[in-house]
Every structure is written in structure tokens, then in C-alpha cells.
Design brief:
The chain has helices spanning 4-10, 22-27, 54-57, 66-78, 91-103, 118-135, 156-161, 196-214, 240-251, 272-275, 303-310, 329-345, 347-368, 399-411, 433-447, and strands spanning 33-37, 40-43, 48-51, 109-115, 143-147, 178-181, 219-224, 254-258, 282-285, 297-302, 372-376, 383-390, 395-396, 414-415, 417-419, 422-425. It is of the alpha/beta class. A hairpin with a 2-residue loop joins strand 15 (417-419) and strand 16 (422-425). The chain starts with a helix and ends with a helix.
Amino acid sequence: MKDGNFLKEHNARSMWHPMAHPADSLANPPTIITRAQGVRITDVDGHEVVDAVGGLWNVNLGFSCQPVKDAIAAQLDVLPYYSTFRGTSNDAVIELSEGLRDFFAPDGLVRAFYTSGGSDSVETALRLARQYHKIRGEAGRVKFLSLKKGYHGTHFGGASVNGNANFRTQYEPLLPGCHHIPAPYTYRNPFNETDPAKLAALCLSALEDEIAFQGAGTIAAMIMEPVLGAGGVIPPHESFMPGVRAICDRHGILLIADEVITAFGRTGSWTGSRHWGVQPDLMCTAKAITNGYFPFGAVMISGAVAEVFENDRSGAAAIGHGYTYSGHPVGAAAAIACLAETQRLNVPENAAARGAQLFEGLLGLQEKYSVIGDVRGGHGLMCALELVADRGTKAPIDKGVIGRVQEVAYQAGAMVRVSGPNIIMSPPLVLSAQDVQVILAALDAGLATT
């Protein structure tokens, strides 16, 4: 490995970073992380902090999960790769599939289609949704509905159903037939409604209206996150996702739960759908499925959808889709170990307890700093602060101010993530009460500069 001087000198010189302007990465070189242990990361200068980002929502078990590391190393010695395209499989992916079937049984999901990550999983779910309707003789069902502020990855399909212009504008024209409804975002919404239950009802009414306008017979699926993540951690009222499920059922529309972030315990429940008492038709997973140690994902498929595909005799159910690394044996071995450790540790229990502690602490900071316009969370370890220049007008904060908050917080002991006006926290689910206090103290230091 090159030394620290080399790394600093060449930082961002020969690579473009995701979600960043290339020139900005050169002008403001990224923090170089060189080591990690437990829930802490260490940079090239030896500065150690609590990682309140959890890698990127994915290192649920922290950076020292030895069973997953051991499983990866052992699998590399036995079978480092083989394809699962028609005609071949591998032992690890078969074992994993049975484990996932058991894990997701309460969600009504019985089959897995493997991918290389979250964006792949979303793309797969969208494709399978269209194919499902074609098999059933409803080829006109090709449109998709989703929420504004929702995030569904960066493939063309995912970008098309994304509800944030930042991931769309520079890449248009996108997939036609994608339509968006207002998110149940109490701080900012077109209805000027702050009551969560009333807002949920208004958004559900908007969904019904859009379906009537488009024609139910033209719509393949509704895709949504149980708790909106990258859009700023927006938890809906408890009535919202069950309401979406009921509307989809009435109109023959599939419900795709994008659980790339929320599956495997982050909300304080084993899945986000289970958190709201909903069984989706398709579920997108990735991230925590291998604790971030290997790029891997899975689309979980309900029994009803699987039956339509498996009972087809026309040939229309042949899946003309897949990835070179679908069902990669090393990823499958990592996922087997990760699933076992996730269940052994019962991570939703700690996620709920530490999430409540973090949320309460953030509410305390809001009382102290007027720059905090909104605090969102309360459902496991996913929280956000929305910073404003003025609480009365909700005018967005200057980018320089929020950048300074992030930098001072980092120097004070915690890595947090900035997304637009939001400071987002998604730490590992094995976080301790003391770690939460470190995050809160670091944020306090950062906010004191505003």
C-alpha cells in the first residue's frame, strides 16, 4: 500500500467520485479512510471517529464482523466464482436461498433473484413487474408509480422512478410512463399539512387520483421505501404503507418495497414492510445482506407472483435478464454468514433502542439550535436533521454552513453525511449507548459554529 503522502498527493486526481462534481473533488479532496474497527473508522492521518453513516447505510454489523470475513476467505479457496445462468448453479447460493426464504416468510416472500447491488435489484423488480402482467395477458400494464423524494438507485429504471431531480435532470429523457405522487413529508408538502395522519390520507388520495388519471389497466407497479432514506429520512404515518397496499390490491397493481436500506433490521423491525404490517409483491434488497463486505443483492418474490411465472406454459415467463455476478458464490457465502450473525445478535432490538436514544438527543439539539428546522427519525437507526437559514420561512441553509457543521463534527469525533440541506445518520446497528453520545456531542460541536 502506498504511504500517506502519495495518497494525499493523488487524492481524486485519477478518479471521479460518485455523487460529486469532479472539479469539486479536486478542489476539496475527499477524506481518505484507511482502517476501520467496530463502529469506528480511521483516516490517513490517524484520526479515528464513530461512523454515523454506517459505510453507506450498509455496514449494519460494524467493520469487525469476523464470521462474514471468514466466510468470504473460505469461499475464495473453494469456489471463487461460477455463473448461475441457465444450466449451472453453486452450493452456496442454494443454501442462501433456503435461508432467505425462511427469513422473509413473514413477508410472504418465497423466491430470490440475485443481483450485484441495490440499483440492480430495483431494475430487476421493475422488469419482473412488467413481465408478470404480460404473462397474465395484461401487456398494457407498463407504467410505474412512485413517491417524490424517494430514492431507487441510479440505473435508468431506478432514476426514472426516483423522486429527486438531482438524479434525473442531467440524464433525461428517462423511461417513459413513470409518475410521482407527493411523499408523506410533514415538513414540506404541497398540502401544507403537518399532521402525519391527515397528510398520509391526502397522499393516498393523490395516489388514487393518479391511478384514475393514468388508468389502472396501464400501471404495472408502485415502488416505495417503507421509510424514505436518501431523500432525507422521511417516515410515513403508520397508515400510509398499508393504505398503499390496499389501493394496489384494488387496482391489480403490484407493490414493490424498496428495502435496500430498511431490510435486515434498520427500522427496529426485521424488514421495513414488516414494520408497517405489509406484505409486498416484490422486495428489493442489497447493502446489509453482506454487511457491505461484498457487492450483492436479491429481489425477493412473493408466492403469488412466483406462481404466475412458474405455472406459465407459453414461454412468456422465461427471464431474459440477469447479471454476470448474480448469485456469486463468494457473495452468497458472505450473505449466509451475515444473515446468521444478524439473527444471532437480534440487531433490530438494539437498533430500536439506540435509534430512540439518538432521536431524543437530536430533538434536544433542535431546542438548542434554531438552524435545525426539522428532526426526523424515531424508527430504528435512521435519523436526519434538516437545517434551515430561517425557521419561519424554512429557507434552505447555505451549503458552506452545512459543510462546516459536517467538518467540525468529524474533527469532534463522528462522520455524518450531508445530502442537500440534510444531515443524515445511519450508523451500524451494533452501536452502543456511548457511541450515540459521541455522535450527539460531535454534532453539538458542529452546530455551535452556525
